[in-house]
Amino acid sequence: MLGFLLFSSSASIASDAIPVLEVGSQIFSNVTVSTKSATHVFIKHSRGFAGLKLSELDHATMVKLGLEAPDPPKDESANPPVKIENPLSKMENPFSKMENPFLRPEFQPKVTQRDGKVYVEVYHQTFELDMHFVKGVLWSLFCFWLLFCYCTHLICKKSGIKAGLACWIPIVQYVRLLRAAQMSGWWILLCIIPLVSLIIGIVWSIKICQVRVKGFFTVLFLLLPVTTPLAFLYLALSSDGKEDNYGGKVHLSWQTSSPE
């Protein structure tokens, strides 16, 4: 009765026998689909009958059983894929093979100290420096830094900006110089960019000379690297015409009155 029901309820199922059907670890031969439900498909094979879960069957197996239509063959000649090639991919970077000569080991300076002298070896050449000379250079740099801080203090004071300790702190003193030229101190963040720092330096030279009531030649000397220290010193030590013309001394004057 069971076999009769299985064979009689088969409809719209492929009746061709499948020689070999692999479902997981099981292999069936001479497979014919008997019937199916929403969750199972029943087959007849050489050893009897079996029920298979649809959820456990792959696409290829369901196609063999006639449960799904096979995928249409792809016609690659109809719409060939378009390959867009980047024309710059074949171009070789001209800077890829360029080597920075200063990164070579022979260009890296080696500083050694022995017998009271300093030896600097650069590019297979050794320079001998006396220890007293090195100390003199370092002390000179320190004195120039103190002079720069003092000039910064004077420029800020004569520009109407509170100088204070900020004029003696590195980097912070540049913020005070910007404020002395009536510029925002946040411009210091853009000074790390070479071209922008050059533009900021030109604008600062013009505006600080306007604040200190100086002329065109002072601006020019500030922009020239050779005369920049002298112009900076002139800005700090010179007067702007607004100070006391008598230098703080007592000045006596008299006024004659006309007779009534």
Would you summarize the structure shown here?
With 260 residues, the protein is an alpha+beta fold.
Plain-language structure description:
The protein has 260 residues and is α+β, with helices and mostly antiparallel strands. The chain folds into three domains: 2-64, SH3 type barrels, CATH 2.30.30; 102-134; 145-237, no CATH class. The chain is built from seven helices and seven strands. It has helices at 2-8, 59-64, 131-158, 172-180, 194-211, 216-223, 228-237, and strands spanning 18-23, 26-36, 40-45, 48-53, 110-114, 117-122, 125-130. The protein has a four-stranded antiparallel beta sheet with strand order 1-2-3-4, with no helix packed on it. Strands 5-6-7 form a three-stranded antiparallel beta sheet. A hairpin with a 3-residue loop joins strand 2 (26-36) and strand 3 (40-45). It starts with a helix and ends in a 23-residue tail after the last helix. The model is unreliable at 1-14 and 243-252 (pLDDT under 50).
- Beta strands, count: 7
Tally of contiguous helical segments: 7
Sheet with most strands: strand arrangement: 1-2-3-4
**What portion of residues is helical?**
25-40%
SSE succession: HEEEEHEEEHHHHH
Structural class: alpha+beta
Q: Sheet with the most strands? A: 4 strands, antiparallel
Query: If you compute it from the alpha carbons, what radius of gyration comes out, rounded to the nearest whole angstrom?
Result: 47 Å
Uncertain spans: 1-14, 243-252
Mean pLDDT: 75
Keywords:
7 helices, 4-stranded antiparallel sheet, disordered N terminus, alpha+beta, 3-stranded antiparallel sheet, 3 domains, 7 strands, SH3 type barrels, 260 residues
